[in-house]
Amino acid sequence: MNDTIFNDPEDRYGLPGWTYFNSDLFELEAEKLFRQHWQLVCHESDVAKIGQFITFDLVNERAVIIKGKDGVIRAFHNLCRHRGSRVVAQERGVCKSAMVCPFHGWSFNLDGSLRGVAQPRSFPELDPKQWGLKPIECEIWKGFIFIRFKSGHQPSIGKLMSPYEKLVSDQQLEKLSSCKPPSISEVWPVNWKAMRDVDNEAYHVPMAHPGLQDLYGKDYKDYGTIGDTNLNIGTFNPTPSSRWSVKLYRKMVDNLPEPLASLPKAWIYITIFPNQVISMYPDSVIFYQDIPVSVKKSHQRYAVYARPNEDRVTRLARKLSGRIDEITAIEDMQLMQWSYEAMRSSAFDGLMLSDLESGVGQYHSWLKKRLPVMAQPNEPIRI
Ligand code: FES
Ligand SMILES: [Fe+2]
């Protein structure tokens, strides 16, 4: 075994099982890992029109991202300053000139300032700025809109993603258009880290995902952790595939119009810790994100984007890559549930990670650095 692959030889054994079930730790993760880290909400194309908005919920926080009359995209807490109702109830939509709270009808301008209240004479004078929606830090990287509920140790998203400037330079990320806006899956009965674990390695691909194995299994490479990110590239296998969907997909990718034809024949994944992945395919770009609901429940959020001037072949190729992705997700669901349940068993005494699962070990090591309590082998009485 080569223990230089793991930052710490202990990382080969994974996180202790208690870290997947402890409610105090979940609260700590919510504060330190989720509120204080950048979260990808959507792409500029999801809020292209004036007044177009998208909402985003995460660990008791609620955000609304909306395009103002001045064309600026802003993020606010989706929390009415009167009594805390959601100001915008839907997942996405367009507010013509104001956001109107469904509870008592307070209205807010698209720049977040208070526009008016119902029965104003029943209130003292309210300053529109002071009583406007509370802003949330918001930054756009290559068209992708990130927010952060609370500031933390992370640098700007631009700095965080700077190692990938060259890698994404031909991907036309700023020009994407939304073809499946971010939506959320049903609740999965696992801790969010169990979802990340199954996604952070490709050792299971030959056994668990025959479609992916056919597509790129032999030529998948984990480039390791860079700061709060990780890069993996699955270059398409040169050998012919026996599966119709993969065979057809690779044929279509060979026939994409320029400049898509010049993109790498590969699926490129950039993971942004703690919980999200941007995947660049020759036919489309997607992102997915694991959203903790409670210590034992999580969602996955997922969106698909198209590059400009795509033709019919590109659209069909995108359908096929979506199908391969969907089958992979279904295959993973059962596996993450079994490994999650195991951590509660009296027989569970840690993992034994292969060199090919170093992505899991490196991610656990990153988590332990952020929250050192996770390194404790036994569950603390109180965190
Ligand atoms: S809570 Fe929004 S108007 Fe009352
Ligand atoms: Fe998988």
Q: Please give the number of β-strands.
A: 17
The hetero compounds bound to this protein are: FE2/S2 (inorganic) cluster, fe (ii) ion
Radius of gyration: 22 Å
User: By CATH's scheme, which homologous superfamily of the largest domain applies?
Assistant: Naphthalene 1,2-dioxygenase Alpha Subunit, Chain A, domain 1
Shape: globular
Treating each run of at least 4 consecutive H or I residues as one helix, how many helices?
8
Structure notes:
The chain is α+β, with helices and mostly antiparallel strands and 383 residues long. It has two domains: 1-21 and 190-383, Naphthalene 1,2-dioxygenase Alpha Subunit, Chain A, domain 1, CATH 3.90.380; 36-160, Rieske Iron-sulfur Protein, CATH 2.102.10.10. Helices cover 24% and strands 27% of the residues. A seven-stranded antiparallel sheet has the order 1-10-9-4-3-2-5, with no helix packed on it. The chain has a seven-stranded antiparallel sheet with strand order 11-17-16-15-14-13-12. The longest helix is centred in the C-terminal third of the chain and has 31 residues, at 312-342. It is globular. The mean pLDDT is 94. The structure holds FE2/S2 (inorganic) cluster and fe (ii) ion. Residues 198, 204, 208-209, 328, 332 line the site of fe (ii) ion (FE2).
Key features of this structure:
single chain, alpha+beta, Naphthalene 1,2-dioxygenase Alpha Subunit, Chain A, domain 1, Rieske Iron-sulfur Protein, 7-stranded antiparallel beta sheet, binds FE2/S2 (inorganic) cluster, binds fe (ii) ion
Question: What is shown here, in short?
Answer:
The protein has eight helices and 17 strands. The strands form three sheets. The protein has a seven-stranded antiparallel β-sheet with strand order 1-10-9-4-3-2-5, with no helix packed on it. The longest helix has 31 residues.
